[in-house]
Write a structure and sequence with these properties.
alpha/beta, 333 residues, Isopropylmalate Dehydrogenase
């Protein structure tokens, strides 16, 4: 059934991120073909108006004409200090965080159907006197979400997706961060969001072990026996198709991945090197478990490329594509 709410265009917010980085120009480059690529979608770009226009020029985009076409609006927030490409300035740390707050507030209110975040520089925000560990953690805090899951994904008809049981932890702390209950919750979040936002009726999740050879029957570690296998059994009781634990060094092969909708890795550098090798420049960072939709690029601020016009907008385009798909699926559901 169609009503006024479902007929309204999607409104996707894009934060332009660190002003000294590539975020503003990648946003402009990605949106240059917005009307043709994403018909019926409106975009609200969050950033300093003069900065966005100037960086758009670096990639040959006439920003004023693009906005005048009517598919793109600007949520202006003034820089605290003038910004030069490649030159970090702690004075703009709170400006960057303010853009993220504007996006989150708009998404929570329903003004935005999804948010796409350009890369930010954590050090700039911390140097501004604000403790900050990353987008994912801040989104969880601001939305009062107890548990979120980081998932990176490629593109295409059968994309590789890799989610993480733990994120930014020292390797020595990973075993202590794993327990049956939290692992079941993580698997349940992946299952739920793949159903709702990606249209997968019965997601198939392959789960890695923690130790080499998935523990070698306990000889190389007992986490697989004591934590991961029991968590998978509980997930099965909830009707979730999660299988494993598999040795991580052999799981990432086509014969296994063709049966998977997502791989759940136990720690950051267990799963993401494979994902980034396969998809870098076209990958998407997705935060699962939030009450709002958030996607991002698979790279950092690239200060050395800022202002040169040489940065590749492929990951930003993929992040926007994914956000639009998720928002459409969520609205249809």
């Amino acid at each position: 059934m169609t009503n006024a709410a479902t007929a309204a265009p999607l409104n996707i917010a894009i934060t332009t991120g660190e002003p000294a980085g590539v975020g503003p120009e990648l946003t402009a480059a990605a949106l240059a073909g917005a009307a043709a690529r994403w018909p019926g979608v409106h975009f609200t770009v969050l950033g300093d108006a003069a900065l966005v226009a100037a960086r758009a020029g670096a990639v040959g985009v006439d920003w004023a004409a693009l906005v005048a076409a009517g598919h793109i609006g600007l949520g202006h927030r003034s820089l605290a200090a003038p910004s030069r490409p490649g030159r970090l300035d702690a004075a703009n740390g709170r400006y960057v965080l303010g853009l993220l707050d504007d996006a989150i507030d708009g998404a929570l209110s329903g003004a935005f159907d999804a948010i796409v975040t350009a890369p930010l520089q954590k050090s700039t925000i911390n140097d501004a006197g604000v403790p900050f560990t990353g987008h994912t953690e801040y989104l969880a805090q601001r939305t009062h979400t107890a548990r979120v899951v980081m998932m990176l994904a490629g593109t295409g008809a059968r994309p590789l997706r890799v989610a993480l049981a733990t994120t930014h932890l020292p390797l020595k702390d990973v075993p202590g961060a794993l327990d049956i209950g939290s692992l079941v919750e993580t698997i349940a979040i992946i299952d739920h969001d793949l159903r709702r936002d990606f249209g997968l009726p019965v997601p198939r999740i392959l789960v890695t072990g923690l130790n080499p050879h998935a523990g070698e029957n306990g000889y190389l570690g007992r986490e697989e026996i004591d934590i991961i296998a029991p968590a998978l059994a509980r997930a099965a009781e909830r009707g979730i198709d999660a299988r494993g634990p598999y040795p991580a060094d052999t799981l990432f092969q086509p014969r296994y991945l063709e049966e998977a909708d997502c791989v759940l890795a136990m720690f950051h550098d267990q799963g993401l090197p494979v994902l980034k090798y396969a998809t870098f420049g076209e990958g998407v960072n997705i935060t699962l478990g939030l009450p709002i939709i958030r996607t991002s690029v698979d790279h950092g601020t690239a200060l050395d490329l800022a202002g040169t016009g040489r940065a590749d907008a492929g990951s930003m385009i993929a992040a926007i594509d994914t956000a639009v798909t998720m928002a459409r699926n969520r609205r249809a559901g």
